[in-house]
Amino acid sequence: MAKAAAKSSKVSAVAAARRPVLAGRTYSGMAAQVEVLPPAERISLRAPAGSLAALSKALGVKLPEKPKASASKGGRTALWLGPDEWMIVDEAGGDPLADCAKVTQLHSAVGISHRNVAFAVSGPDVEATLNAGCPQDLGLAAFPVGACSRTVLGKIEIVLYRTAEDAFRVECWRSFADYCFTFLSDAARDAAA
Question: Are 120 and 34 in contact (CB under 8 A)?
Answer without folding.
Answer: yes
